[in-house]
Amino acid sequence: MHLALPRKWRPRVFDDLVGQEGVARTLSNAIAEGRVASAYLLTGPRGVGKTSTARILARALNCERGPTVHPCDECASCREILARGESLDVHEMDGASNRKIENARELIETVRYAPQRDRFRIAIIDEVHMLTTEAFNALLKTLEEPPPHARFILASTELHKIPATIVSRCQRFGFRALTVAEIAEQLQKIAAEEKIRVTPGALGMLAAAAEGSLRDGLSLLDQTATLSGGSVDEAGCAEILALVDRELLEGVFSAAASGDRGAAVATLGKLFDAGEDPRRVAREFLSLLRRLLMLAAGARGDVPEADQKRLTALSRAMPYENLLRAVSLAIESDALLRRGDDAGIVLQMLVLKLAELPRLKSIEGVLSGAAVPAAPAASASPLRSDARGPRILSLVSVEAEEAAPAPAPASPADSLSRFSNLLDARRRVTGAQVSLAESIGVDGDDLVLRFGIDKAAAKEALEEPPVRKLLAEVAREAFGRPLRVVLKTGPPADGDLGQAAREVPREAISRERASNRAETDPVVRSAMELFRAELTEVKEEE
Ligand SMILES: [Zn+2]
Predict the structure, then answer these.
(1) Residues within 5 Å of ion ligand 1, judged at the Cβ atom
(2) Please, what is the average pLDDT of the chain?
């Protein structure tokens, strides 16, 4: 049976933890010296080893030969925790999927009893910040007078949402996001062990897309390897990550940097024409600007080695102070995007503002009395008729019009398309995984995602509790009501035509998305305004 890489390569001892050396050392020392706290709080971004650490810690505490830094892996306690994350005396609960106070109270009550077999009765509560106030109160009461055998291992991605009274009673360990280089190195090691061939460029792409999470990196490696038959290259990666065409994106920047607003907007248009989701393009563009600024400031940061030379050259296309302004404008745009403004328009405005930066420089020259450099020749732009001479640049973002509330989705296909778009915007990796589904459909109160047998890895990645939570949140937003997310493998059961009819094939959704894009296209929009027309159908170009 194919075992998904994230699970297969889950750290089994403290020394396996990647990038969390401080945490591993402190915990190992404490256990070696027999100092066992009654509650641990593990915080940090997702996919960096918190749950793995909780399980290693549980094994270290409850091993028949423990407490020990090196659990035996042979006693009943060790074997049970290794197999399913739980044991007779170790109870695991995910705050994200099991929020009810009854469950939390039940778990906390269970932990108060003496262990049935092992040294401690341990509760592992993942995403503990999701607990209700009542559940927190129950937890607090137990933590204030911890029964001698009770141990709590709490984990959370959002420390600030946990009541200070809880935090102060825990020994806290902060986990950090991994750098692109750390993830790439680890992926390379595991790929070699798994006999997966990966080009260096592809490794860099996977590591960057993992956004600091080794688990996501492994999951992506797993999927690309499955799809490509064990040989992963840049083209294969680009396909699964649906990466924005890098050359075009960098072309937008260099056109804007040279003040050529016509070319900048046209290149941006090409990206949208190629079918890229504006929100995704916007995110990629913001991250490009940030990287260029880092390189211009002399910090290599998270820029993969393969990209450094090219991007360093690109960063010199703009004077440093303009690059600083560019990033500050980009941050304002990001705020508009987060507010839900139309990504296509926000991005166009940003690019046009950037294209003004070279002219702003010349105004400063005028003010300081220095010789005025000739303003770069601005090419004719369909959006601005007066393209000549220096102009004053407003560094204040243009206030978007009062955002109209999103209209109620008209059809299931609308909602599904909205679901895909929202998901892409929230988390690209998850969006890519969902896009591998054979069908997506609503059945009563269930949102059913069906995966082919060969896409089991994608399905498994979506089963991670935080990812399920995200899916449920986005589904609620897209459909306007809570839906239970059901992940299935294989074809619909024979004879279930009703079910099949309710499911919308992927092509219908991408058609919907093409229609959404057309509505955000500035040319189509202005034409629509002129003629007060409505888009009735969008034909996809073959
Ligand atoms: Zn053991």
Answers:
(1) 63-64, 71-72, 75, 78
(2) 78
